[in-house]
Amino acid sequence: MVNDVLSDLNASFEKVIEAYKRDLQKVRTGRANVAMLEGTRVEYYGQMSPLNQVASVQVTDARLITIKPWEKALIPKIEHAIREQRDLGLNPTNDGEVVRVPIPPLTQERRRDLSKVVKKMAEEAKVAARNHRRDANEMLKTLKGDGDISEDDEKTGLKKSQEATDKAIARIEEITAKKEAEILEV
Questions:
Q1: Of 67, 71, 88, 70, which is closest to residue 79 (Cα–Cα)?
Q2: Which of 85, 131, 136, 153 gives 149 a disulfide partner, CB atoms 3.0 to 4.6 angstroms apart?
Q3: How far is the CA of 23 from the CAs of 52, 98, 125, in angstroms?
Q4: Per-residue pLDDT tens for 78-103?
Q5: What residues contact residue 38 under an 8 Å CB cut-off, 6+ apart?
Q6: Can you give the pTM of this predicted structure?
Q7: Taking the domain 2-26+107-184, which CATH number applies?
């Protein structure tokens, strides 16, 4: 019983960490990255579609993303959608065939702002991990209250739950430190 609760807890931690990594990919560094445009949606035949479903998106060098739409009529819509994402601060251009998105170098002030955004995202991931720990602890207490596990098993389970939480938070902090170093790198 206790092992089931702890294995569910560890699986929840893995999901939190994977979601955090996915979110971090969207945070802009000084380099071009296709994941920066992952949340961009373009109007396509009356539907809002993800950019990667209406065009080919590629990183051609460290400071340039190129977007080749399936239909040329989408070029102005793609440019508009990218400009509307204020948090990216990108200014796309086109040559009638391809949309080019130059990635300007980050200013020191912008790097500090992005670092704060990463820290905020890390704190949200830690809170999610702690919420999963709370749920697991409540499950253990319920199992003890129902007589399914002994008091010793509950204490052992609570201790292991805390240890697993500490490991998950340490991994989140490690990932955060790497991302901050990447952002602050000139």
A1: 67
A2: 153
A3: 17, 27, 10
A4: 999 988 886 677 889 998 899 999 98
A5: 25, 26, 50, 51, 52
A6: 0.74
A7: 1.10.132.20
